Amino acid sequence: MVRKSRAGEILETFTRCVAERGYDAANFSDIAGELGLSKGTIVHHYGTKDRLLASAHESYLRRRLAEAALIRDRLATPTQQLAGLLYAFVLYQVVDREATVAFQREIVRLAGHEAMAEGRRLRADYLGLVRSVLADGVASGEFRPCDIEVQSLLIFGSAQWAWTWFDPDGPVSAEQVGAQLVDLVLGGLAVRRSRLSGLTAVDGKVASTVRQSIEDVSVMQSDS
């Protein structure tokens, strides 16, 4: 197994601290103490705490964009593609839990800080990908006409707060929650609701494609 770089260890530890306690309570002293290094080493790699958070956001969003692109490419229709993206939104609560919680609880910091400019661009790219799937669905007649901008924001909003209530060790799995999100969103968008049953199968093609895409990106990034 390839050992993480010092910068990678710092980023991973910081991300976990933010997930557990929030950005304001995460500090260089705790990270340095846990990793057995000086605060100067953290500053050497990242400069400021804002820059460290920006790096965490950027790393997170690049993973999500790579997975979303695979999901879109591997599923044939806009209906399947949107269902896949919806599953992924919930699966992130399990497969990349700490980074997801850290990102979601501090996403508001992307709004205006200069250090977060690249994170804002990446998030816009992700939002653009989802909107392109929605637009394709409307154009093909699979989705009823809708306000694509509002629909995409409603989808993101519903997924954004899952970290506050979803319990990975609870009685309902991420796949089951994902299936319910698919049913909720596509139940309102799909012209032919009869097709939903196949999309909400937790062991079906869509869910399996999402899991494989997430795994493939993880492997590609660990090998790079």
Count of alpha/pi helices: 11
CATH class of the largest domain: Mainly Alpha
Overall, the morphology is elongated
CATH third-level topology of the largest domain: Tetracycline Repressor, domain 2
The CATH architecture of the largest domain can be given as Orthogonal Bundle
CATH superfamily of the largest domain: Tetracycline Repressor, domain 2
Helix content: over 70%
Runs in which pLDDT lies below 50 for 5 or more consecutive residues are none
Biggest sheet details: none
Q: Can you write the helix and strand succession as a string? A: HHHHHHHHHHH
Work out the strand percent.
under 5%
User: What do the pLDDT scores average to?
Assistant: 91
Descriptive notes:
The chain is mainly α and 224 residues long. The chain folds into 2 domains: 1-47, Homeodomain-like (Arc Repressor Mutant, subunit A, Orthogonal Bundle); 60-223, Tetracycline Repressor, domain 2, CATH 1.10.357.10. Helix content is 72%, strand content 0%. It has helices spanning 6-21, 28-35, 39-46, 49-74, 78-95, 97-105, 117-140, 148-160, 174-189, 196-199, 205-223. The longest helix is centred in the N-terminal third of the chain and has 26 residues, at 49-74. It starts with 5 loop residues before the first helix and ends with a helix. The mean pLDDT is 91.
